[in-house]
Amino acid sequence: MSDPERSLDADSPLTLPGFFDALAEGDLLGGVCDDCGQVLLPPRPACYNCGSRDVAVEEQPREGRVYSYTEVQTPPPALEADAPYTIAVVELASGGRLTGRLGVDYADVEIGDPVELEVREPSEAERSLALDYELEWPVHVFEPR
Ligand SMILES: [Zn+2]
Q1: In the prediction, which pLDDT does 58 show?
Q2: pTM higher than 0.85
Q3: Which residues face 31 on adjacent strands?
Q4: What is the Cα 43 distance to its own chain's centre?
Q5: Ligand 1 mean position, distance from CA 47 (Å)
Q6: Distance from the CA of 76 to the center of ligand 1, in angstroms?
Q7: Nearest-5° angle of CA 98, CA 128, CA 88?
Q8: CA within 13 Å, CB half, 120
Q9: Distance between CA 121 and CA 143 in Å, rounded?
Q10: How far does the centroid of ligand 1 lie from the alpha carbon of residue 86, in Å?
Q11: What does each of the 145 residues of the chain score in pLDDT, given as a tens digit?
């Protein structure tokens, strides 16, 4: 149940800072719409499927399958040394979809491949791209399982 009067300060898991704080502690949180069941990743205060504000925050499974993927050949200059790298949309076992880096070469990926989310500290290059309040946000990567 949600309270339409609830405040949305940065500690709320319905905000990106709250989402990343939880992720840094090992919890992958999603919003689940009480009205239509849509899983919102990261959580949001309103459902992007039906507009409802009855969004519950629930821990999400870290396992999923590659839903779609592509290769980044021209990244931001700070990440040039990482290129080329693979980005995927992963459908978690809960049905929620999350975009992230995939720890597999593009040529070795197929849609439907099973993957698992891992969380790490940002690299110096990644930190150089972050805004001040994002500096401590962890980076999630999908690895094959
Ligand atoms: Zn909904």
Answers
A1: 95
A2: yes
A3: 40, 57
A4: 9
A5: 5
A6: 34
A7: 20
A8: 12
A9: 15
A10: 30
A11: 445 456 678 788 888 888 999 999 989 999 999 999 999 999 999 999 999 999 999 999 999 999 999 999 999 999 999 999 999 999 999 999 999 999 999 999 999 999 999 999 999 999 999 999 898 899 999 999 9
Q: Where are the beta strands (DSSP E) in the chain?
A: 29-33, 39-40, 55-59, 63-72, 85-92, 97-102, 114-120, 139-144
Paired sense of beta strands 139-144 and 97-102, if any: parallel
Residue whose structure tokens are 């989402």: 19
Q: What φ, ψ does residue 126 adopt, rounded to 5°?
A: -65, -40
Dist CA 44 CA 15 (whole Å)? 7
Edge-to-edge order in the sheet of strand 39-40: 39-40, 29-33, 55-59
Q: How many CB atoms lie within 10 A of CB 37?
A: 12
Cα 93 to ligand 1 centre (Å) = 18
Cβ atoms within 10 Å, residue 92:
21
User: In angstroms, what is the span from residue 36 Cα to ligand 1's centroid?
Assistant: 4
3: helix, strand or coil: coil
